[in-house]
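Milestone M4 deliverable, item 7.
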Amino acid sequence: MKWPRKKNNHQPSPSLEQQRSEKLAELGAKLWALRQEQILSLEQVVVLTRIPRRLLQAIEEGNLNELPEPIYIQGLIRQFAEALGLNGVEFSSSFPITSAQMNPQGMGNISPLSQLRPIHLYFLYIFLIVCSVNGLSQLLNNAVLQASNSQNQPYPQQKSVVKPELAQRQESVAVQPISDRLSGIHQGQAVQIGVTLKASSWIRVVADGKTEFEGILPEGTHRTWKAQEQLTVKTNNAGGVLMSVNQEKAKEMGEPGKEEEIRIAAKPKL
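Output delivered:
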């Protein structure tokens, strides 16, 4: 007597190459949507990242065949994401470099580095050394900047955090009341600011204590932000940023090439 054979319903797991292709398509679609939302062209992103246009386009289209080795793809995704104001390290970490990232139990005790060829290890070591040197340099710059601010500013609560790459300027950032710079905030009304870039500038916007944006915006960009209590806008090129409050006439934040930070608080209802 012959027993009927059982059907094998087990579906083979996708290959590592297929997993990379699917993840690249997912991340590329998110980057494309965010770039469209910020009204940025690929040429503008090339200026910000120094990545060739064909590689940026391949990432957005999920075209794995046009890109280099996976370890370099992850680095390109990180730079692309950071140019759009995202956390590049966190965003790119989901792209699998080795099969250990997708199936850690199946790898056993095999080290991910064993999957790389010697030339890849050489570039990886150089990359780690460069990152270590940059990190140490930023720590030293922060220490020097904090010591300088503590000596020059009599009121610690008014100290402003300056990006490490701007530490060499050692310029004190004056926080001026909005009544001295801009007008138009009505009682009981949420704060709304709009910025228009006359020149490419680094900007950080904090709304009600939460950082809404930090990064470089190219010339011609227009963005708006709202807050219920307070908005803080900081830039390293005050003359290149036009700022308006509650849709009134825009004014320059300050002098070209100068750092400036402006805090705008909504007046409470009476």
